[in-house]
Amino acid sequence: MTANFAFVFPGQGSQSVGMLDSFSDIPVVRQTIEEANEALGFDLGKLIAEGPAEELNLTVNTQPALLTGSVAMYRYYLSLGGKVPSLMAGHSLGEYSALVAAGALDFKDAVRLVRFRAEQMQKAVPVGEGSMSAILGLEDDKVREVCLQASAGGVVEPVNFNTPGQVVIAGQVEPLKKAMELALEAGARRALPLKVSGPFHSSLMKPAADALKIRLEEVTVKEPQIPVLHNVDVKTREQEADIKDALARQVASAVLWADTVREMEKLGIATLYECGPGAALTGMVKRITPNIKAFSLNNKEAVEKAAQQTKELN
Predict the structure, then answer these.
(1) Lower CB density within 10 Å: C or N end of the chain?
(2) Nearest to 85 by CA among 242, 233, 274
(3) Rounded to a whole number, what is the largest CA-CA distance in the chain?
(4) At 156, phi and psi to the nearest 5?
(5) Which is catalytic among the residues 201, 202, 230, 253?
(6) How far apart are CA 36 and CA 30, in angstroms?
(7) Cis ω on the peptide bond leading into residue 52 (within 30° of 0)?
(8) Dist. CA 304–CA 25, nearest whole Å
């Protein structure tokens, strides 16, 4: 196995009640949960462990919970002597996990920041006025085309370019419905409404992006110790102002995930570990390129195995 490996961190949708159960006896995981509880002023750990799922799935809770879970798993990996990866990225919210893991963001600052980000995203568009859908089996350019056609009646845009043939679109309810119909007419295999409370990553999130930009001024961001590819343009950044700008813009910009994985391939990444709950990104990587081996580190055994694998690298 090559020493050139990357870590990636999942975004919303990967959460589940009990997602840290296999780590319940690990001190560094318990400590990470306690830090998050302290930063937020309520028992996030209890919500992760016991639910209810409806409460965990509220975006204001999901975002800090996933960040906490991902960072806790990464800290456990390091505590076992796992090698530091040569590159990182995260899908949407996962970009914050990547920046914490890369030493650019303080964990407690990040927990409060993503809670604020979630509040602003929810506030930008009232519940019921906007949503998201996954378009399956249609080329990226064709999805752009149907969104453009449907946007005569309001805002609808492609917002997550996840894999070839899987693009998520977001916008106001009626134009979104129209884009789904047009996508099916254009040959899409399926057009699936997503269970989300807003049109995330669309231009309708501009008020959230503006609010986050102001909030980011209160937070210190250091130069990452490990390069992080950003969602907005698949580029790495070193300067504090540039990283903050990318994070603010990300809220109202498309997530270029397929391009991120392709860039990793170009940079010589042969193995990729998804560090956090779920296995969504691992599945995506396999559909983007056969040249990168992807593994999900979503339980204690998987993290321990990865640490052992990377320890043996030259």
Answers:
(1) C
(2) 274
(3) 57
(4) -150, 130
(5) 201
(6) 10
(7) yes
(8) 14
CB 135 within 8 A of CB 161: no
Which residue of the set 92, 97, 133, 202 is catalytic?
Answer: 92
Global pTM value: 0.97
Residue 278 φ/ψ, nearest 5 degrees: 80, -170
CB neighbours (10 Å) of residue 287? Answer: 14
Q: Is 230 an active-site residue?
A: no
Instruction: Report helix, strand or coil for 9.
Output: strand
List % helix, strand, coil for the chain (3-state, nearest 5).
Answer: 50, 15, 35
Q: Which residues of 210-249 are buried (b: 16+ CB within 10 A; e: fewer)?
A: ebbeebbeebebeebebbbbbbbebebbeeeeebbbbbbb
Sign of CA dihedral 245, 158, 100, 58: positive
Instruction: Report which of 37, 60, 13, 49 is spatially closest to residue 281, judged by C-alpha positions.
Output: 13
Where residue 154 falls (left for φ over 0; alpha for ψ -120 to 50; beta otherwise) is left
Closest by CA position to 114, among listed 105, 124, 127, 125: 105
Q: How many Å is the Cα radius of gyration of the chain?
A: 19
CA angle 106, 110, 115 (to 5 degrees): 160
Per-residue model confidence as pLDDT tens for the chain (314 residues): 446 999 999 999 999 999 999 999 999 999 999 999 999 999 999 999 999 999 999 999 999 999 999 999 999 999 999 999 999 999 999 999 999 999 999 999 999 999 999 999 999 998 889 999 999 999 999 999 999 999 999 999 999 999 999 999 999 999 999 999 999 999 999 999 998 889 999 999 999 999 999 999 999 999 999 999 999 999 999 999 999 999 999 999 999 999 999 999 999 999 999 999 999 999 999 999 999 999 999 999 999 999 999 988 76
Q: Is 92 a catalytic residue?
A: yes
